[in-house]
Amino acid sequence: MLDEKRIRQMTKLAFFEKKEEKNALRIGRYFRSDYIGKELLKNFFLASIGYILVLAVAVLYHIEWLVDEIDTIDLQFAAGCLIASYLCLFHCRVCDQHDPLPGSTEKAEMVWKRAG
């Protein structure tokens, strides 16, 4: 007699292998800590680029006001605000990622078991 639970597991595994095989092979080339470090570094640079782009759009949007008021703006305070907002972004976006692997924890564990 065939075990239905085992058949369901094998079917899910076949779908997973078909859908995630490339990702599992890509992840399998690294040690886990190396892969996580690489993803965190990539995320840091992408978040920094995004922050700079948003800042550039805000400056361009308010350029007329900035040109008129440049001599009255407290530049040290403005620089402090920019640095503080960047640190908040860095903390929220990069440091709080507990699982940089794609998908859920169970899915990631299955990839690691399959790849390694």
Give me the secondary-structure topology.
Blueprint (H helix, E strand, L loop, with lengths): L3 H25 L3 H30 L1 H7 L5 H21 L9 H11 L1
Helix pairs in contact: 1-5, 2-4
Structure in words:
By secondary structure, the protein is mainly α. 81% of the residues lie in helices and 0% in strands. The chain has 5 helices and no strands. The longest helix is centred in the middle third of the chain and has 30 residues, at 32-61. It starts with a helix and ends with a helix. The model has no long low-confidence stretch (mean pLDDT 78).
- Oligomeric nature of the chains: single chain
Residues in helix, % = over 70%
The radius of gyration computed from the alpha-carbon positions, rounded to a whole number of angstroms, is 23 Å
Q: Supply the helix-strand structural class.
A: mainly alpha
What percentage of amino acids are in beta strands? under 5%
**Average of pLDDT:** 78
Cα(first) to Cα(last) distance is 32 Å
The poorly predicted ranges are none
User: How many H/I helical runs?
Assistant: 5
Largest sheet: none
Task: Provide the succession of SSEs.
Answer: HHHHH
Overall strand count: 0
Q: Which geometry do the CA atoms define? A: elongated
